[in-house]
TrEMBL record:
Official protein name in the record: LysR family transcriptional regulator
Cross-referenced InterPro entries: LysR-type_TF_proteobact-type, LysR_HTH_N, LysR_subst-bd, WH-like_DNA-bd_sf, WH_DNA-bd_sf
GO process annotations (BP): DNA-templated transcription
Keyword Transcription: yes
Keywords, ordered alphabetically: DNA-binding, Transcription, Transcription regulation
SUPFAM superfamilies: Periplasmic binding protein-like II (SSF53850), Winged helix' DNA-binding domain (SSF46785)
Pfam families: HTH_1, LysR_substrate
Length: 308
């Protein structure tokens, strides 16, 4: 038999056929195991022998036996294919999990007052997508932004929802909406706004914008600092105290009855955005959630606040 051509690798399919045939009692049995004809087995073995430049089986109709070369090749080849099957199975199981699990970093207030009520609709549309949430700051400072950039770049999370764009060329930030903050109180009062207690995050962009737009009123207010709007809502419950809340959150049933002072509302200079890693092709779960989120926000901001 002529030597194997140096620039032609053996067929993977032929190697697999040989691995099965080498451990079968006959070519007929190998054909049954692989679900092909016996003549197909013979052709694959002959082609492999031609490629290798040596015989792999003894040519004796009475005995199904390996040649010396076949004895060398068979044990390692079977082990390699078994390991390959295990790797492929593992890749399939991991791939299924990765493609259908979406990890989202979201501000707790956005999740509590707007997103959570609408997730049932998303799960009904995409039952195969599992969403895992972790909370992040609504208004991330430099350290929080750096952490988000790192988590997105290292694929520890797939999507981050936050205020203001992240300055990282490896990431893409898509505008969701521009927040408008409105002074609200749970209970109505005849007292002037300036004489009532206000609970605000004095470091947040909404307060800086309010002080700029409503400078005269802001100078008269008695303030108490809180670190989040969730705390402010809890502390104003049952009182005529005020806080500033994103108008999107005011669509929540618990907040719809709040007294709104829209004449003092302010729009923020930057938008709420969805950030994710730049890729040639985005995961299907990420694309599905992002499109659904855009559609639901558009519907809510247009006044259709109730989930369909």
């Amino acid at each position: 038999m002529k030597p194997m051509a140096q620039d032609k690798s053996p067929s993977l399919n032929a190697l697999r056929v040989f691995a099965v045939a080498a451990h079968a009692d006959s070519f007929k049995q190998a054909a049954q195991q692989l679900g092909v004809s016996q003549s197909n087995i013979t052709r694959q073995i002959q082609a492999l022998e031609e490629q290798l430049g040596t015989r792999l089986f003894q040519r004796d109709n009475r005995v199904h036996a390996l040649s010396a070369a076949g004895e060398v090749l068979a044990p390692d080849l079977l082990r390699i294919f078994r390991e390959l099957d295990r790797v492929v199975d593992r890749a399939r199981s991991v791939g299924d999990s990765e493609l259908t699990t979406l990890r989202i970093a979201v501000p707790e207030s956005f999740l509590r007052w707007w997103l959570s009520r609408r997730l049932a609709e998303f799960y009904a549309l995409y039952p195969h997508i599992q969403v895992q949430f972790q909370t992040v700051e609504l208004f991330p400072q430099s350290h929080g932004q750096a952490t988000l950039c790192q988590q997105l770049a290292h694929e520890e999370i797939d999507l981050a929802i936050h205020y203001g764009a992240l300055r990282d060329k490896a990431l893409h930030s898509s505008v969701l909406y521009t927040p408008t903050y409105i002074p609200v109180a749970q209970a109505s009062s005849e007292k002037a706004l300036a004489s009532r207690l206000w609970w605000v995050d004095s470091h947040a962009p909404y307060w800086r914008q309010f002080k700029k737009a409503q400078a005269h009123l802001a100078r008269q207010l008695t303030l108490r600092h809180v670190s989040s709007c969730n705390i402010a809502i809890d502390l104003t419950h049952g009182t005529d105290h005020l806080t500033l809340i994103d108008q999107l959150f005011l669509m929540h049933p618990q907040l719809q009855g709040y007294v709104k002072h829209t004449e003092y509302q302010v729009s923020l200079p930057e938008a709420m955005v969805a950030s994710y890693k730049q890729r040639a092709r985005q995961p299907l779960a990420l694309v599905a959630f992002h499109k659904w989120l855009d559609a639901r926000l558009t519907s809510s901001l247009a006044g259709n606040a109730q989930p369909n």
